[in-house]
Amino acid sequence: MSNDLVTPDDSCGNSIRLSRRRFLQVMAGTAGALVVGIRMADAADAPLPPALLGDNFHDLGAYVRINAEGNVLIGARDPDTGTGVATALPRIIADELDADWTRVSVVPLGLGVTSNNGQPRWTYGRQIGGIGGSIPAAWNDLRQVGAVARWLLLQAAARRLGVPGDQLRCDAGMVIARDGRRFTYGELAADASKIALPTSVPPLKKPADYHLIGKPVGDIDARSIVTGLTRYATDEHYADALVAVLVHCPWADGTLAHIDSTATLAVKGVVKVVQLKPEPGQAWGNTVIAPAVAVLAEDTWSALQGRQKLKLEWKPGASGSESSYALEQQASALLAGKTDPTTRVRNDGDVDAAGKKAARRLDATYFQPWLAHATAEPMNCLVRLDKDHASLVVPTQAPQKAWAVVQRLTGLTPAQIDIKVPRIGGGYGRRLDHDYVAEAVMLAQAVDKPVRLLWTREQDLGHDYYRSGSVHQLSVTIDRKRQLLGWKQRTASASALAHRNVPDNRLWTSELQADQLPAALVPNYRSDWYALDSATPRGPARGMPHLSNAFAVESFIDEIAHSMKEDPLVTHLRVLGDPREVPLSSGGTMDTGRLANVLKLVADRIDWKNWLRTVNGLGIACWHVEGAYVAHAIEVAMQGEKLIIQRVVCAVDVGRVINPLGLEGQLAGATLDALSTALNLAITFKDGQIQQHGYKDYPLASMAQLPNAVEVIIVPDDDRPPAGASFLAMPTAAPALANAVFRASAVRVRRLPLMKELLRML
């Protein structure tokens, strides 16, 4: 076995390799505290907080801290955007540590970075949240951290008692000998901190001995969130910070033609007006999103009043004539013509030859709108720049990417940049980009004072890195035995990876997956992607590329079943075939048995056997995402033109579950998010300008539109490592809803948002 531990690529694209000694480094703490964590620099470089316990937890520099009273601090390395990782990740450590969870406090670690000959070394390895990879990436790493801490405590107790360590056991924050003698972790902390590291990783606990992993627990922040005590980045403030608000150019590629700031500067409290421009050559997400004018003032009210008095004239760039309607027409024309695709994503067998042998053929086209992120917490950033230090409070999903932006703009060394990441009010992929961080740093440099940058809701919606609209043209050929012979999918969209230093031959990867259903399940399968050229900024979004593709594919399978006058569940199961491991081109396998199982579970729970006899409409859909399997079943009723979602059932198989209660909440939340998106949401633009300016014209679903509850079924599967689930429930909710609507109304919705299309067709 190698002596190196390799973690997944970090958010800056660097492969992280840690030696076991560095990975399992133990640092001696102050006041008799035991400190265990991942160390990637000399001891002198390891960040340590000024106090072990107290209110100032955010400077924590290690994963585990234990004080003399037996209180345990465990750091959560990944930003929590509402996915529950701030609870799940520390519980992995706490279980291996055999800690008493009632004595554990969890602290967000913020960015961990030290200098290595001027280059960054990431103290905690991978730090990125809200993309479904936190728990899979941490599963092995964090168990080892907990196991080492437990081993050190055992050795400290063994020396006191004069017995071998293997004659002792740990339980709920205590080390216990066979004769009943025992020590609390607090009593052993000082001694344990002085013991040399083990030469190899101590044995990890057997799954049968887990006492926290797999057991439900509430979110560690739940009480503070519902009582309003949670501090978000917008709650933080430096005493001498200026408040900055912006006016962005309506066109990302536009220019400022005229400015008159006289009236603005006359507003009491306004300090300065600053112009910002995107940096030439910088990728989307790393610099200012569009030309902007900033008003900096002593308080928020003065800044907003000053902004209202700005007199600005903007000049459009090449995007000034662009419209979402025209792009959709362009996409439809590309798919209808004989133009070669930009990329042939997959080509199994011979689709054209299979068509000549078919007994039946079916075609359909599906349309997906552009979408905004619409996070509850608009973009913001607090920054203080000194000659040799930068301190930031940033609601970011990727602290290492934020660091790269700050370092490029300031030239500071890695260790001179401190980034704190509090609880985040929603990410959905928007906070994987850091244009707002670049804006805040540029403004702090311009005024030589700390800056608190605040975006308004209108700005947040009107200046986003959107998910591109897309058009999906599907065609299937079927033999006389109802087997799918050939499947052809042609998709047109504007890549979210454009203008991000991604090779042209990889731009399709944000829009499609080569292994998405029903790839590898149909002998003749072809998937083509056609690139649309758009100047409207795009970027990562929750559930992409699965969200748009699952709607098309799973709706189409339902249409196939209808064309054959067949139960859609039967059609789905025939496509999946016998339970087996299907190799994926991306590596790994897809287990058709696990996918079929979650589909059958939701069908059974929603009483699918009555799918033809009920007066309501029932719909189902299933999908797989990187080793995880999900299915939805939905029941709807139509009362005139009113759609009522009566029941929603979601079943998942994600392997081992760390926190069932957290997973259930994540699945229910993602389901409601997906339903809200499918029902109402669309971004449109005309003459290059976004037409939606707030929740009034980008209406998130009301409680009345959504079901009273989402029933969640979690498949117990402790034989496999955990898979990610932050957006797992997103892809299948919309097609299950559309399929249910078809049975209730006889209207086949192939275009989202659903309500607008349904009312048009009724």
Structural notes for this entry:
The protein is α+β, with helices and mostly antiparallel strands and 762 residues long. Helix content is 27%, strand content 24%. It has a 7-stranded mixed sheet, sandwiched between helices. It has a 5-stranded mixed sheet with strand order 3-4-5-6-7. The relative contact order is 0.11.
The gist of it:
The protein contains 18 helices and 34 strands.
Q: pLDDT below 50 for ≥5 consecutive residues: which ranges?
A: 1-31, 38-61
Q: What is the CATH class of the largest domain?
A: Alpha Beta
Q: Quote the average pLDDT.
A: 91
How would you write the strand order of the largest sheet? Answer: 15-16-13-23-20-21-22
CATH topology of the largest domain: Aldehyde Oxidoreductase, domain 4
List how many beta strands DSSP finds.
Answer: 34
List keywords for this structure.
3 domains; Aldehyde Oxidoreductase, domain 4; 18 helices; 762 residues; disordered N terminus; five-stranded mixed β-sheet; alpha+beta; seven-stranded mixed β-sheet
